[in-house]
Amino acid sequence: MLALANIDAGYGGFQALFGVSMSVNAGEAVAVLGANGAGKTTLLRVISGLLPAMRGEMTMEGVSLRVIAPHRILETGIAHVPESRRLFPRLSVEANLKMGAFVPAARKRFAERLDYVYGLFPRLKERRHQLAGTMSGGEQQMCAIGRALMSGPKLVLLDEPSMGLAPVVVAQVFELVRRIRSEGYTVLIVEQNVAQVLKVADRAYLLEVGRIKASGSAAELLASDEVRRAYMGI
Amino acid sequence: MDCHLDIFFLEAVLNGLLLAGLLALLALGLNLVFGVIDVVWICYAELVMVGMYGIHYAHKGGAPFLLAALLGILLVALAGALLHVLVIRPVLDSAPINQLLVTGGVLFFLQAAATMAFGIEFRNIGIRLGSVNLMDMSFAWSRLLTFAVALGGMLALWLFLTRTYMGTAIRAIAQDRQIMPLMGVDQRKVYLVTSAIGGGLAGLAAALMVLQYDIYPQIGLQFGPLIFMICVLGGLGNMIGGFVAAFIIAQFIAVGGSCFATEWGYAIAFLFFMVAIFIRPQGLFAAKS
Asked: Considering the entire predicted model, what is its pTM?
């Protein structure tokens, strides 16, 4: 579904990704692991067009992403739930969801998608008139994921969904991830919470200082010395 | 000083209320543009001036007033869009002071161009709507109409901002600019639409002002500082704050002007503004974060 080949990217004079190649197949949940500053967020920003790649090739179902304007990437079926949720704090929950359905194709199916998202996350329906910024962290993450689903995407990019949440809530957020997986969405998730994310993912890549250092099935990575030493404190 | 709680005082208060409607409309356009694009159109009142001349000449050229007003609104909406594309877009990433100076340049350009094109004479569209008498008070129909249409225009904008996708995007973009592409929103388009609406609101204000005021190239100087003061008092970019501030300032002008002299009304209003800004630099109402 999604394929990256030799992607270089960075900010100004600072290069953050070096020759990253990876792929996500339809129906999979793929995790990208790595420490702070490894380039995980940069990777997702490059895929969704927020940051232009310097070199390399990226395709979504055979369509080259590098030639598409950032605001048209969503139409290829890629929805991005950004780091720290980035809801519109002074818009209601429902207005946030409406923004998720901004593209013309999604507007036509707004009522249907809204019912679907409310069915998936009934809590959002209860809170639909509340300002998004006044909800708890876990509810906000739910709203951010719901907003991404409003466009009817094929691939959902999740950037550190557990960041800044209490441990109890972290478990709930991974439950949400499991649920959207079972709904048939393909998921690419970036996380520092290695133990949790490898329970949801089929495969994973390990990113270190902008380079892919290891890849394999979730079980393989969980057992690998590199991951155990660096992230699980064993 | 000649100030008693009599019928003339009430008349001044009510006239202040009517003036507030117009000032609130003027402040709304500026606040909308600032809230979304983060650039202050120093030349906002000059766009109104352009609209007033446009309506004046369309009417003189034979168009009925309503058609002339509509043409004026479209003209200034177009002017707003052009201002954005030609002047604002190139300086979007520049320092705020440069953005301020460049729209300041447009202010003087428009004033000079209007002086060259239309001369320095005061022009009047020549429509008299008369006035209505209530007890011993007298209210010009043009002011009542202005108040009603200004409120109607603000209501229409509110409906647009809350009910439509583009309106929701306009509210959203003021809260988080960077992630708009993730929503499939083309920021350039939102800015352009916002500029056209900001211009259209200036055009609507122009259509109402030609019924009350003479038109001359420097009329922007009469209203421009007032509009900025209201916007800053309400918290720049805060549309509701601007609305409330317009009603406060209009009362100072109307009641102050009635109790002392018209000029004193403005002096008191600006004095109040300065004190208020010392106490609350971010404006009376919580500005956008």
From this structure: 0.90
